[in-house]
Amino acid sequence: MSDEVELSPLLAAAEARLAALGVEEARLDLLYLAEAAFGIPTSRLRRPQGLRVPTDKLAHFDGLVERRAAREPVQRILGNWEFWGLELLLGPETLIPRPDTETLVETVLKHRPSRDRSWRILDLGTGTGAILLALLSEYGTAFGVGVDLSPDAAAVARGNAHRLGLGERAQFLAGDWATALGGGGFDIIVSNPPYIPDADIAGLQVEVARFEPWRALAGGPDGLGPYRLLLPDLARLAAPAALVAMEHGAEQGPAVAALFQAAGLDKVATICDLGGRDRVAVGEWPAPASEKNLLE
Fold first, then answer.
1. What is the pLDDT of residues 200-221, one digit of tens each?
2. Cα 197 to chain center, whole Å?
């Protein structure tokens, strides 16, 4: 049997070190790292008094703490993260799914509440597949296509779909936005495109600027380049009365809404996240009057 040491002082010392380096929520991050290193659930680690851990696992824990001290995000250290209750694997070319993006999922569900419709869903810039897979988990007979510029990201999303039992209702392609698609007919089109102005990326939190993939962040000089590229493709991609929802930055609500309207979308609105910040633009592709009553 290996020797053991008390865990509580180790956590306290590591927390003090990370906090001194400017790591936000250092205590919570350490709970996730300790769970990975020692196999103890975070619920138990919140009350570490009396817990002892084997000394032969300390090197693993110390290595994880070193990575966090270098400001590597805890999600990337673990290699996976939860979104909409789904555990998703990450890759070097995928963004870490964030709680703000759940606003996009909530927006779609509110505007298309029928859970038994066989919606056709398109996710442009799919990354881990988070948005598409969350929607497929709610719409039990829907089918979705996710497109990402990175073949590696598309492969990660494909793997996540199969791990979650959604692989038969999802297809993932590598390509340059909508040019990877030959046809349309999608009832729901979603996207969390890059929207950070290029010049602003270096000044972001270290965890983002250094460890997130550049091309998943960079939205051009004003952060709106991807919207200008994507919206003109709606005429080819959207079914009549299709719902279109896209995430954007907190200061970009009016500009993205204006781009939606210029593209011909109806019922354009800006939806706020839980922090009260503009987060999602939503609109509908025009439909013949005879088809509008079929959406409810």
1. 999 999 999 999 999 999 999 9
2. 19
Q: Is CATH 3.40.50.1220 what the domain over 93-292 is classified as, yes or no?
A: no
Higher per-residue pLDDT: 235 or 186: 186
**Contact between residue 187 and residue 119 where contact means Cβ atoms under 8 Å apart:** yes
Q: Is residue 57 scored above 90 in pLDDT?
A: yes
pLDDT value at residue 288: 65
Nearest to 270 by CA among 159, 104, 31, 115: 104
113 SS3 class: coil
Residue 127 φ/ψ, nearest 5 degrees: 60, -125
Give the pLDDT confidence score for residue 177 in this predicted structure. 84
Residue whose token pair is 């299709």: 242
Length of the chain: 296
- Report residue 152 as tokens: 């590696």
pLDDT at residue 127, rounded to an integer: 97
Residue 283 DSSP one-character state: E
**Selection from 147, 146, 191, 136 nearest residue 169 by Cα:** 136
User: Within a 10 A sphere around the Cβ of 72, how many other Cβ atoms?
Assistant: 16
- The residues near 45 (Cβ < 8 Å, ≥ 6 apart) are 7, 11, 31, 34, 35, 51
The answer to whether residue 135 scores a pLDDT higher than 90 is yes
Q: Across the strands, what pairs with 82?
A: 87
Q: What is the DSSP letter of 293?
A: T
At 190, give phi and psi (nearest 5°).
-125, 155
Q: Which residues of 222-247 are buried (b: 16+ CB within 10 A; e: fewer)?
A: ebbbbbebbbebbeebbbbbbbbbbb
Calculate ∠ Cα 143-144-149, nearest 5°: 160
